[in-house]
Specification:
The protein has a 3-stranded antiparallel sheet. The mean pLDDT is 85. Helices cover 62% and strands 10% of the residues. It is mainly alpha-helical.
Length: 105
């Protein structure tokens, strides 16, 4: 039975080392931004209001976010921004400047 305990201890040590390795890799890589966070960042860096298609293009060009293969990422972003405006009200990161265009609040 003593042999089994040693095996279990060795297995646990190996599992802990694997977890630590994953944690080190995660710490080395910057956290991936969501489309909404990337849009807020792009608008913060821009001096003008943008529509969602322009934001998607700017986010991809700067490497902040790329669509994982969706057919209408600009429509999804538009919906997300409107949802944030509705739920957060005055604390939202965005403001609507004109029809279809947003700026950083």
């Amino acid at each position: 039975m003593a042999g089994k305990k040693k095996t279990n201890v060795a297995t646990k040590k190996g599992a802990n080392a694997a977890k630590e390795s994953k944690a080190a890799k995660a710490a080395a890589q910057p956290k991936k931004l969501s489309a909404l966070d990337a849009a807020a960042r792009v608008l913060g860096e821009s001096s003008q209001a943008m529509n969602c298609q322009e934001m998607i293009a700017a986010m991809a060009a700067k490497g902040y976010w790329t669509s994982p293969g969706g057919k209408t990422p600009s429509a999804t972003l538009y919906s997300s921004i409107l949802r944030e405006l509705k739920t957060k009200g005055g604390e939202a990161r965005f403001r609507k400047t004109e029809r279809g265009k947003f700026a950083r609040a």
